[in-house]
Amino acid sequence: MGWWRGPSWMAGGLVLGAALMAGLSTCLPPASILQRLPEPMLARALMAGSASSIVTSRRYPDAIMLYARPVPINETLCRVVQYGFALQDSGGFPQAPPSVFESYAIVGAPDISTTSVLSPAAPAPAGEEFISAKAKKACSDYRDFDHLVTGSSLEIAQALLLLETARWDVIKDRAAFSVECRDEAHGGTPASCDGRAYLRDLDLKQITGVSSSSGPDQNGDAEVSYWIQVQYRIHGHPIVTDLRISTLRLHEADSRIAAITINRDAY
């Protein structure tokens, strides 16, 4: 019988498979083998007993990223845990343990008709027993990992709620807050833009990051600002928008949107 000439990843996979069966998953093979393994075997090689939670991978010359199955934290957000394995220069073996990253996927807009709209503490991530089957399935099926949001889950949830409230106030022509929009996307002198139209047309999946800050405004009133970063492409060119929602706290359990500032192509 001649030599069997199957795919090189398969030969490495057979050896790796035997090692895994023997409980040797902590002894990682070189990157040259890992980069060519089928996804289930790659997850087993790198994550051992946690491999069943991995739904996909991304492979780069200097790193491998594994994505765990998204888990719902409320009706609109899913938590996505990512495991990054950096490939060392020497020998090509991945570094262990991996770097762990946490991002969030937006699977829907908040229902402002049933939520305490501007309470500073709402909406906190709900317990699993309060999450609908629809939201659970949306998270379990989510695979669009090009569209994830960074920030704390509470800040993201609050920002989405405020943004959806502002959008509907604009759509219904009842907005009592100011909207300022500056467009620097095309270079030259910044121009004004239609901020209300921007809010009406904004695709929530283009949000990439959320943060917040708090402190007194110029009148000494308590102000909380939410910074929402949005990124999309026009003819291959990335357009980055910083959207700031400023809220004023009226009392312990109530706030109002005071102003929205939109800066397109801020970077």
Note down, in words, how this protein is organized.
- By secondary structure, the chain is an alpha+beta fold.
- The strands form 2 sheets. It has a 6-stranded mixed sheet with strand order 7-6-11-10-9-8, with helices on one face.
- A hairpin with a 2-residue loop joins strand 9 and strand 10.
- It is elongated, with a radius of gyration of 23 Å.
- The N terminus is likely disordered.
Helix content: 10-25%
Strand order, sheet with most strands: 7-6-11-10-9-8
Uncertain runs are 1-26, 120-124
The biggest beta sheet is recorded as: 6 strands, mixed
Tell me, briefly, the overall form.
elongated
Proportion of β residues?
25-35%
Query: What is the number of strand segments?
Result: 11
Protein structure class: alpha+beta
Termini Cα gap: 64 Å
Total of DSSP H or I helical runs spanning 4+ residues: 6
Q: Output mean pLDDT.
A: 78
Q: Give helix and strand order, one letter per element, not per position.
A: HHHEEEEEHHEEHEEEE
Output the radius of gyration.
23 Å
Which descriptors apply to this entry?
11 strands; about 270 residues; 6-stranded mixed sheet
Q: Can you summarize this structure?
A:
It contains six helices and eleven strands.
Question: What's the SSE blueprint?
Answer:
Blueprint: H1 8-21, H2 31-34, H3 39-47, E1 54-60, E2 63-68, E3 71-72, E4 77-86, E5 99-106, H4 133-141, H5 153-171, E6 178-183, E7 191-192, H6 195-201, E8 207-216, E9 222-234, E10 237-251, E11 254-264
Parallel strand pairs: 6-11
Antiparallel strand pairs: 1-2, 2-4, 3-4, 4-5, 6-7, 8-9, 9-10, 10-11
Helix pairs in contact: 5-6
